[in-house]
Input
Amino acid sequence: DAKTTQPPSMDCAEGRAANLPCNHSTISGNEYVYWYRQIHSQGPQYIIHGLKNNETNEMASLIITEDRKSSTLILPHATLRDTAVYYCIVRGRNAGNMLTFGGGTRLMVKP
Amino acid sequence: ETGVTQSPTHLIKTRGQQVTLRCSSQSGHNTVSWYQQALGQGPQFIFQYYREEENGRGNFPPRFSGLQFPNYSSELNVNALELDDSALYLCASSLDGGPLGNTIYFGEGSWLTVV
Output
């Protein structure tokens, strides 16, 4: 599976957009980019995933660059409840349901 | 709510004992995987079950074993518990064996403390 690189921590003001970057320069053509988040002591929560095109759902938007070497997760109006560790994961062809979690980005939303 | 339920939520065991953790997958999901998350770390893949067969395993010793039942629920068994086995154990389920693009949902986990 391609390795991902994320900043270890970020701050965001409540009500503002949170933009979380992820680098995955070795991604292969048929590998998807997944985002999960984990609020303290809870199980990881699925946010969104995509292959090439930008994706949007009720939680967030995922912007994938044209060369697919990086992506950005956007939380349009961050709230205090969005404070969590956000994981960017590239899911490999033969990985089955194995997700390789890196260190993630600890997002702190501040009032 | 992901529909993935795990039990028990917390338990304490003594070193050398055995433990069984249980997971009910989301309705319709036939693939279950287990993860171990030590304090301050990201989840680590233990293994995956698809149609009652183990078909993927991470870097965990054989004393970590599992089962999947015809209703797709699953158990994780850990023998000869060690202090380092203290962790949050997560179950995740999805539909099919892992076609790219499907969604994997996690339960809230079982906290295991080994003393």
